Amino acid sequence: MKIFGRTKAIEADIDALLDAVSEQGMTLTQRLEAKLDQGELPGEIDEEFVDRLVGYKRTVSGLRRRIETSLIREMLIPDLRGEVMSLIERLHDFTEDVSHLVRSVSLIRPRIPEFLVQDLRGIGRALGSCAEQMVMAARAFFRNPHAVHDHVHKVGFHESESDSLTNQAIRKLFDSDLELAEKVLLYQMITALDGLCDGAESIADAITIAAMKREE
User: Fold this and answer.
1) Which residue has the higher pLDDT, 197 or 83?
2) Host domain of residue 185
3) Residue 76 carries which DSSP code?
4) Fewer CB within 10 A of the terminal residue: the chain, N end or C end?
5) C-alpha to C-alpha distance for 65 and 173, rounded to whole angstroms
6) What is the pTM of this model?
7) 22-71: pLDDT as tens digits
8) How many domains would you assign to the chain?
9) Plot region of 39 (φ>0 → left; ψ -120 to 50 → alpha; else → beta)
10) Is residue 43 part of a domain?
11) Closest CA to 164 of 131, 197, 128
12) Tell me, what's the pLDDT at 5?
């Protein structure tokens, strides 16, 4: 059963918001994968690409405000309004974190050593899967809460995969002969990517709790 019944406008806004979150994640991970496949440095990010990812965040920001206004003005779902507003806010924060990371990398332009390429590829794939399953869990919350658990479980699986690859990459990094300043910059980038997976898992856990409340 759909959470908003016949309220089509807010359903459309939520679908559009989730589409933007999903597309931002896919765009980031596909670009990283392509650059690694081409043997290019992932740190070389052009402004057009950065603006595209920031554009998704702006779309989510606008939809978030419209959804929150509708929930309050039309007094929709009073029993779940807090959970829905919190979820929308956290999804917005996720897109903001993605935008901030990409903007930082585009400005700093870290040199990516060959020994980190495969680990970065794996972390990028894990991030893409985490973001995809997080969005699917959110869609399930609104449409079929019984399906939430399966997607949340997959987010946790891919987040653990990212943790393992991150730890492996960090060990290689600090065992290398790179200058300390380079190590610190790369460490920050690697942990920021992994942090996005952590963020997706945190959102997925919140969806689980909200879905349990909806089923009461």
Assistant:
1) 197
2) 8-215
3) -
4) C
5) 42
6) 0.90
7) 999 999 998 888 877 766 555 556 788 889 999 999 999 999 999 988 88
8) 1
9) left
10) yes
11) 197
12) 54
Distance from C-alpha of 13 to C-alpha of 9, rounded to nearest angstrom: 6
Question: Residue 75, by phi and psi: left (phi above 0), alpha (psi -120 to 50) or beta?
Answer: left
HSE-CB of 50 using CA atoms within 13 angstroms: 15
Half-sphere exposure of 138 (CA within 13 A, CB side): 30
Amino acid making up residue 46: D
Give the per-residue pLDDT at 1: 45
SS3 176: coil
Q: Domain with 60 in it: what CATH number?
A: 1.20.58.220
pLDDT of residue 100: 94
| Residue 179 CA from chain centroid, whole number | 31
| Rounded Cα gap, residues 59 and 97, in angstroms | 14
Query: Which residue in 211, 68, 186 sits closest to 120, CA to CA?
Result: 186
Q: Tell me how far apart the alpha carbons of residues 85 and 77 are, in angstroms, rounded to a whole number.
A: 11
* 113-154 pLDDT tens trace: 889 999 999 999 999 999 999 999 999 998 888 999 999 999
Identify the H or E element spanning 39: none
